[in-house]
Please model this.
Amino acid sequence: MQPMPEDWDRAVAVVAHPDDLEYGVASAVARWTGQGKQISYLLATRGEAGIVGLSPDQVGPLRVEEERRSAAVVGVTEVEFLDHPDGLVEYGIALRRDLAAAFRRLQPQVIITTSFDLTWGEEGPVNHSDHRAVGLAVLDACRDAANGWVFPDAGPPCASIRDAYVAGGDSPTHFVDVTDTIDAGIASLREHQAYIDGLGRDFDPDEFLRNMAGYTGMGAGCEYAVAFHRYPMG
Ligand SMILES: [Zn+2]
Model:
């Protein structure tokens, strides 16, 4: 793994649900905003189907608020929701169009998303279908955003995107040293209190994130790190 280049100033981080970015990536976001970079969050859904025993009507607004608070903890104030249905996100033209329109508006150089692999690790559980749909659509929308003949009514084409970085996959190419910002990442995950309570089991964000980032750090040569696979777009 190589250190992820930091010669950029604007990124968009795209995921399916409130809390997806907080399971690791937020520690890297805290580092980048600390360097003065502008990071926007784009969420495909409001996560309204994410808590057992609580209706989507109640959960949607709750999780939107939790996501805005977690974003603020790591220096992110732009949080947008695309309002695709939680649990039923479809890979397809509608999602790619929404993503391409947002990229054209926000003009990022870097796109961040999370794994769209079928499983978490080789023998791990099946990755949520929303994650698979969103991750793949994000990569395709990078190209769509640059092609003015695709989605011509979704704003002028954007040639700014250089690379997409995918967190949580099996074959990382790059890492971000988050030793100085893991505390902010943990605080960011703690903002999802309603969701964590809804898990119905003991879950310690501090232990979880330190274990994961500590393991990645061993391969990266620092105390705590977050790993990404880079997909060049140029
Ligand atoms: Zn998720």
User: Anything to note?
Assistant: Residues 16-17, 20, 128, 131 surround zinc ion (CB under 6 Å). The beta strands are 2-3, 10-15, 38-43, 78-81, 110-114, 163-167, 174-177, 225-232. The chain has a mean pLDDT of 96. Residues 39 and 202 are 31 Å apart (CA to CA).
